[in-house]
Specification:
Helix content: 55-70%
Distance between the termini: 70 Å
Strand content: under 5%
Largest sheet: none
Shape: globular
Order of helices and strands: HHHHHHHHHHHHHHH
Number of strands: 0
Radius of gyration: 21 Å
């Protein structure tokens, strides 16, 4: 006899909330401002088409890195002298394509095995700020110069945090940093340290399947977030007065840059969706330095990145992580305001 006690889930229950929001925006416009529906959809389609080539490169790059097992190269960053570890961890963290759930198990293993917190902090700070996919998308929307500057800033922020922890390693702030229950965990992603890279992945059917799965999943991931971001960008350009943005986040002083770093966390969707929104705010008068500060502070403090740190270390170390992020983001914003 069938069990009738459990209700049948609605068809839309399994649909990502991001897709639901994407559908809700034009429907809401159709009710409250019908004349704006077509311009909003046209803007979104044209903006998405403009970055389609960069999305394609990003998806293929991620698929290749996953299929070859190139992530295992990162293990080399945590070997040798501490200062060398910090530099390598910050550099590789700024370019490696890791999801936040992968960070938790292998960082936990590294810390439990005695890897210095300084190198881990360098990686933690740089990792959420840049990866191949984000570089392509940032280049296509905000320009190659901004993408390069953000990459350099990500590595520099990691170095600042890593060297800062090394300098004060014997202080009460960084002594005994791990939570008592942080040794295990993960989401089933597996450790990227296992095995050696197989660059000619097409010779192994299992790796070809991995390439296809990674490319498809990342295409859907990037696609939904960028569609949402372009819809929000269109709404921002239409309904948010440009003088609001320019009055709060414009100008050449330090104030807008500090403010952008403070609001970066609550206003941040993710690194990919933030790019079109920053582009819209720049159009409306946001300063270059504030844009850089917003993206860096928001990237480090966004929920997936922050949870990976919070899950493993004590609150005082987590506070230091946020402190490094804020100081580094403001410093990078001030520097970019002068250079750009």
């Amino acid at each position: 006899m069938a069990d009738l006690s459990a209700p049948t889930p609605a068809p839309w229950a399994k649909l990502s909330k991001v897709w639901l929001v994407i559908l809700a925006i034009p429907l809401t416009l159709a009710v409250f401002d019908p004349a704006q529906v077509l311009p909003t959809l046209r803007f979104t389609v044209e903006a998405f088409g403009h970055t389609a080539i960069f999305i394609t490169f990003a998806v293929l790059a991620i698929g290749y890195l996953k299929a070859t097992g190139a992530e295992s190269v990162l293990a080399e960053a945590f070997k040798g002298r501490e200062t060398r570890m910090i530099f390598l961890a910050a550099t590789l963290g700024g370019i490696a394509p890791f999801c936040s759930c992968e960070v938790i198990p292998f960082i936990a293993a590294l810390l439990a095995a005695g890897a210095p917190l300084s190198a881990v902090m360098a990686f933690w700070l740089a990792s959420p700020l840049m990866d191949p996919a984000m570089f392509f998308i940032t280049s296509g929307t905000l320009g190659f110069d901004f993408a390069i500057a953000k990459t350099i800033a990500a590595v520099a922020l990691g170095l600042m945090g890593g060297l800062g922890v090394k300098l004060f390693a014997k202080s009460a702030l960084f002594s005994d940093p791990l939570r008592e229950d942080s040794a295990a965990g993960g989401c089933g992603c597996g450790s990227p340290f296992r095995g050696k890279p197989v660059w000619a992945f097409w010779t192994e059917p299992a790796r070809v399947t991995m390439f296809k799965d990674a490319a498809l999943s990342n295409a859907l991931f990037l696609g939904k977030w960028l569609l949402l971001a372009y819809l929000l960008e269109s709404l921002m350009l239409t309904y948010v007065p440009s003088d609001w943005i320019s009055s709060f986040l414009g100008g050449s002083g330090a104030g807008p840059i500090v403010l952008a770093a403070l609001v970066g966390a609550p206003a941040y969707l993710n690194g990919y969706a933030a790019v079109p929104l920053v582009d819209a705010m720049l159009t409306q008068g946001m300063s270059n330095g504030a844009a850089m500060s917003f993206m860096l502070a928001g990237g480090v403090s966004c929920i997936p990145a922050a949870v990976a740190v919070w899950a493993l270390v004590k609150p005082r170390v987590f506070g230091a992580y946020l402190g490094f992020a804020f100081i580094g983001s403001v410093a990078a914003g001030l520097a970019w305001n002068v250079i750009a």
